[in-house]
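Researcher: I'm preparing a figure for a lab meeting and need a structural model of a single chain. I don't have an experimental structure, so a prediction will have to do for now. The sequence is pasted below. Please return the structure as tokens so I can convert it later.
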Amino acid sequence: MSFADQGTRNDLSMTNKKNIEILKKDINKLSYEESISELEAILINVQDENISLDKIQINYIKGHLLLKHCEELLEFVEQEINEINPEFLK
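Model: Understood. Here is the structure written out token by token.
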């Protein structure tokens, strides 16, 4: 089940700091590909004309955290690439 489809215990409480920290921990376990898949699911979800304002807010928070996670993963890989000594590749 994706984060976008996952029902929360109480959608209104999703924005409280404790729940956001839990969500961050769950997202940090995802690979880059899994994170992109979750972002795609959120995009589909928010395109629903019948989506509630609460769901929009929740999807915004999840999307923001997923995007940040993807950026951090890409930065890490970029650093690793920059640290490769060209001599090792010969």
